[in-house]
Design goal:
Shape: elongated
Strand content: 25-35%
Number of strands: 18
Length: 244
């Protein structure tokens, strides 16, 4: 009898870098997603001429809308949102932002949102994913907190300007949404599980079938969106072991 060795290749991490263990993956549920509730870039990537389908990222935390019966992004807590607005029409110079005692390096008066985000992420108390900055070059900039500050009512960022040109130029900071308040009441405030695989869908589609992972071992830092298990309310799915 000729006995040949058997070899296998581990492929679980393909498209699922947040998955730490095979435990529980056989218990996935088939659900229906409300595609209109997901955001471009944060949750899915746009199609191209060579790849017409959009790609919904795996690992998105989900909740179930009790009115529609469809699954949407989990929304238990409100994330803090602050805005930075450059006033007075400066033509040169820089500004800095200070968060919890840490001050950024000088930021150009006409910096892009990505440059502002990079300056904030260079602080010792800000990790990648903690503050997402959007907006046009030169502002206004919208700063949305997540990561370790997910759902927290964080301290207000302050700004110091050293501009030239314009008329009394400066930077105005404002808190547009205070973090820490649970606002969802449609069922999505209850965490149900993670989207197990990438989901392809065509532009114009409003629904898609998908597998919901209901328990297992998760690397929180590698999820596609910020998720803090400490903010999961009672009554949510707790069949997970988290690695932070």
């Amino acid at each position: 009898m000729d006995i040949q060795p058997y070899t296998s290749t581990e492929t679980l991490a393909v498209g699922r870098p947040w998955l730490m263990s095979t435990l529980g993956i056989e218990a996935n549920q088939t659900i229906t997603l409300d595609l209109t509730a997901f955001d471009e870039n944060l949750h899915w990537m746009e199609a191209s001429a060579y790849q017409p389908e959009r790609k919904l990222k795996s690992g998105i935390p989900l909740g179930k809308n009790t009115s529609t019966g469809l699954y949407e992004p989990y929304a238990a807590v409100t994330n803090e949102v602050q805005t930075a607005t450059i006033t007075g029409g400066p033509t040169g110079g820089t500004f800095t932002l200070t968060f919890n005692g840490q001050t950024t390096s000088a930021i150009a008066y006409n910096a892009t949102a990505a440059q502002v985000q990079t300056a904030l992420e260079a602080l010792s108390n800000v990790n990648p994913g903690d503050i997402k900055v959007t907006g046009n070059a030169g502002g206004p900039y919208t700063l949305t907190f997540g990561g370790q500050y997910l759902g927290d009512n964080v301290a207000s960022i302050t700004a110091t300007a050293s501009f030239t040109g314009g008329t009394s130029p400066g930077v105005t900071m404002a808190t547009t949404t205070a973090g820490g308040t649970a606002t969802a009441s449609d069922g999505t405030q209850t965490f149900r599980g993670f989207l197990f695989t990438e989901v392809s869908f065509y532009p114009g589609s409003t629904k898609a079938a998908a597998p919901l992972m209901v328990h297992g071992q998760i690397d929180v830092s590698k999820l596609p969106v910020a998720f803090d298990p400490a903010d999961v309310p009672s009554g949510s799915n707790t069949q997970f072991i988290y690695k932070v």
